[in-house]
Amino acid sequence: MPHEQQPQPLDELHELDAEAVRTWSSLALAALGRAREDIDAINVYPVADADTGTNLYLTAESADRALDDAFVKVTEGTAPASLAHAVRAWAHGALVGARGNSGTILAQLLRGVADVLGGEPEERSSGALLAQALTRAAEEAYAAVSHPVEGTMLTVAGAAARAGEDAGAAAGTAADVARAAYDGARAALAETPGQLAALGRAGVVDAGGCGLVAVLGALWQALSGQEPAAEPVRGRAVPVPQASDPCEQEEEGPAYEVIYLLEASDAAVGELRERLDGLGDSLVVVGGDGLWNVHVHVDDPGAAVEAGVVAGRPYRIRITHFGDERRRGRGERAQRAVVAVVPGEGLAGLCGEAGATAVLVRSGEVPAAPELLDAIRRAHAREVVLLPGGAELRAAAAAAAEQARAEGVRVAVIPTRSAVQGLAALAVHDPDGSFDEDVVAMTAAAGATRYGELAVAERQSFTSAGICQAGDVLGLIDGDVAVIGSGLAETAEAVLERMLGSGGELVTLVLGPEVPDAVAERLEAYVQHGHLAVDTVTYRGGRYSAPLLIGVE
Predict the structure, then answer these.
(1) Strand (E) or helix (H) holding 435
(2) What's the pLDDT band for 344 if we cut at 50, 70, 90?
(3) DSSP 3-state assignment of 139?
(4) pLDDT of 368
(5) Which residues, in sequence order, are CB contacts of 119 under 8 Å at separation 6+?
(6) How far apart are CA 254 and CA 308, in angstroms?
């Protein structure tokens, strides 16, 4: 998003102030944008899913947008922006918009910088203050990672901090400290292949460290007005020694990446760390003051989200199935991917197993266009089929698709109005066929699926089936209330009878978390008894799903 007020010219920026932070942010975003594809291409650790450059860019973009908004608000007032105000807004934007393992660590690095520069003014030189900020950033980043590994972005951050401290101790200016940190980071990055076997085998430097070098180069440029002599962050292979154990193989890690924002106390987050650490790996928890960003790789995404529910209030939940991304290795984009919006953890896992990128929504939530665009980007494909799963998402889906097309991705939106229509579309998805034929087949499958849903009335209300009272079970068919009942199973049978009255070959039942298995068994028997030629398949929708979803194809 363009700034309302342009940053100062580089030759006027030598002090560590709010304008310098604003320029640093703009330059960092531009540098990460230039290096994005190169960094994606060398992403081999911790998962070779070719998205580190993209995640860093999106995190920096969120941070830059928050900083820009803060400046706009200040300019509408009377007082100029302060350094503390700028760095806090910048760090907060990174926190709420952090993407992936590398983006989450970058958010914590910026928080460490903000903890020092955003504190009470000190009688210290700007160089010494910046050195202290870089040191705090590295310390907090290491503390945020459950099991720090050397040869990664953390190593580069630590080396930058040490070099900055040396320059600060020598009474260097802020620009001197920034240059020292930048040079220290570049030197450390070059050593990463010899520190981490996965990098050594691939013959590349660490992707996250590459991005951090770009950010530190932008800091030096913002404070000195000098552009780095050479592009230091372009992803490229470097000559490195191979791992000492030639038989050593990279382990196949967990199948899912789970990320969410969490409102919780410090004590609750401490317990959360322990619980998540036992579920998977690549655990990074960043933030503080009641707001956290949680990132973990697991095989059971539902358990990871449940741990967040125990700790506090998780939201903006993103679950990504690594699938073939893990095996692409060198960052080649998939030809085609599917993005599906689903109301339930079980459904998200089901879509993930089918190779789709799931956007999990809670009851009553409606994802905005930026969230859908983020999912399209995470799918990392040249062609994307978007299944919004609700009529209320049509405008957001169209806006996200339009923006993705501007970024060079071919996107088709199939106007699914329910998750069961999305499942029907996924069932016929053919990633090897032509894009147009695949979209036509998926659209036809979704359109041929009538959808029903059971919900519980919260208050007395007039409906198309009559007046309902609070606690009544409502049976909806194609979005309209068709049946009002007192029990879940009885109402579901009435809905099924109406839906099957016009024919059908397959019934899909998606049970909510509180619905017992006996209800599914009863409904399956009901269909089998009255409609011998109709098959039934049952899934668990999981947390956040409706009591019952019904699809008839």
Answers:
(1) helix 435-447
(2) confident
(3) helix
(4) 86
(5) 84
(6) 18
